[in-house]
Design a protein that fits this description.
alpha+beta; 4-stranded mixed β-sheet; 3-stranded antiparallel β-sheet; 9 helices
C-alpha cells in the first residue's frame, strides 16, 4: 500500500520541491536514453526493463517502442523512477506495492520528485516531503529503510556522464523517408528500408 504523507505546508504536486541543479534535469525531455543506456545507468537487466515497459510499470516518456525496429527512449525522470523501482525491489517490497507508489509519483515533475523521500517497512511505502515527516514516521515505529529520491538523481547524473544520449526530437524534412506514417521519426533501420523502397 502507498500512503502519501501530507506536510503542514500542503505542498502541491505542481510546485517545485527543491529540484536538483544540473543539466540532466534541466533539459529533461530534450534528450532521450536508449534501453541499453538506461540499463547501465540504473543497474538492471534489459529483460527487467522490457518487462516493466510492457506491464506499464515504467513506460518511456520520450518514445515508446512502436513496432519492430523502433527503440524506446527514456527521459532523465524515467531513469530516476527506474532507480527507485530497483531499490524498492532490492529491499523486498512487492511489485504490487511498488506499482502503487510509482503511479503516485508519475504525476510529479522532476523538481518535485527531488524533494521526496520514500520510507517503507517492507509492506507499505510512505511518501515524506520534509525531514520532520521522516522523523515522525520513524518515531511511530514505521519504516525500515528510506530512499531519498534526490540521491537517486545524483547517482543517475553520475552514471549518465559517460553514457550516450540522443536528441528526443530530430528535425527531418517533411516527406523524407525518415518520417514514419504517424509523423514520428523512425529509427535508422526503418529509414534504410524506406530509402530502399523509394529506389
Amino acid at each position: 500500500m502507498y500512503e502519501p504523507r501530507d506536510s503542514d505546508q500542503g505542498a502541491v504536486s505542481g510546485e517545485p520541491g527543491g529540484g536538483m541543479p544540473g543539466s540532466a534535469t534541466d533539459g529533461d525531455g530534450a534528450v532521450g536514453y536508449r534501453g541499453v543506456t538506461a540499463c547501465h545507468a540504473v543497474g538492471i537487466s534489459y529483460r527487467q526493463l522490457d518487462y516493466w515497459a510492457r506491464t506499464a510499470l515504467v513506460v518511456p516518456s520520450v518514445r515508446d517502442a512502436s513496432g519492430s525496429g523502433t527503440q524506446r527512449l527514456y527521459s532523465f525522470r524515467d531513469l530516476v523512477v527506474l532507480k527507485v523501482v530497483k531499490r524498492l525491489l532490492d529491499a523486498g517490497v512487492s511489485l504490487q506495492n511498488i506499482r502503487k507508489a510509482i503511479e503516485a509519483l508519475r504525476s510529479r515533475g522532476v523538481a518535485d520528485l527531488a524533494g521526496i523521500t520514500l520510507i517503507s517497512d517492507g509492506t507499505t511505502v510512505y511518501e515524506c516531503r520534509s525531514p520532520e515527516e521522516v522523523v515522525d514516521l520513524l518515531q511511530g515505529g514505521q519504516g525500515v529503510f528510506g530512499i531519498a529520491i534526490g540521491g537517486a538523481f545524483k547517482e543517475i547524473q553520475g552514471s549518465l556522464s559517460h553514457l550516450p544520449a540522443e536528441p528526443a526530437a530530430v528535425s527531418v524534412e517533411p516527406g523524407s523517408p525518415e518520417v514514419a506514417e504517424g509523423g514520428a521519426v523512425g529509427d535508422e533501420l526503418a529509414a534504410r528500408r524506406a530509402r530502399r523502397r523509394a529506389g
